[in-house]
Amino acid sequence: MGMGPRRKARHAVLEALYAVEMRGIDGDPSLIHEIWNYCLGRYKINEKARFFGENLYRTVLRNKPTIDLLIQKNLQNWQLSRVAIIDRNILRMGVCEILFFPDVPRKVTIDESVELAKRYSTRDSGRFVNGVLDIITEESFDELR
Question: Contact at 8 Å (CB) between 56 and 97?
Fold first, then answer.
């Protein structure tokens, strides 16, 4: 089975977030945009999935402090900074979907995140990502407000 359009979009988002973090360019809008266009260009995706991907990418970047705080709270005796960069960005995407994309079923978000972890990271990463996302809910976000 091939990759669905949204799955391809998530691959592009992960690559773009990785590039942004590696290059430490959090605050540069034109570079952030350029990286997105480059990563997106590597996949053939329809308009709807492109819109979803760009929205996810920008929402993660815009809300990174909140998202990171929430992940950190649920990491149990482990520092977010010590989590592998790929896993960290997969978690950010998953948490972002849980918090800001209520139309995406939670199960889909978790499955897709685990899929990304298995593909780009290690077997253990799949379990790790699953465990962390499993305990994060919209309610845990309310506690931060």
Answer: yes
CATH for 5-142 is 1.10.940.10
Residue with tokens 């993660």: 60
What amino acid is encoded at 114 in this protein? V
Structural contact between residues 56 and 113, judged by C-beta atoms closer than 8 angstroms: no
Distance CA 61, CA 26 (A): 8
3-state secondary structure at position 27: coil
122 contact partners, CB below 8 Å, separation of at least 6: none
Quick: pLDDT tens for 46-100: 999 999 999 999 999 999 999 999 999 988 778 888 899 999 999 999 999 999 9
Distance CA 116, CA 110 (A): 10
What region, left, alpha or beta, does residue 76 occupy, with left being phi > 0 and alpha being psi -120 to 50 degrees? left
CA 109 vs. chain centroid, Å, equals 10
Residue 62 CA to chain centroid, in angstroms? 12
Domain ranges of the chain: 5-142
CA distance 14 to 10: 6
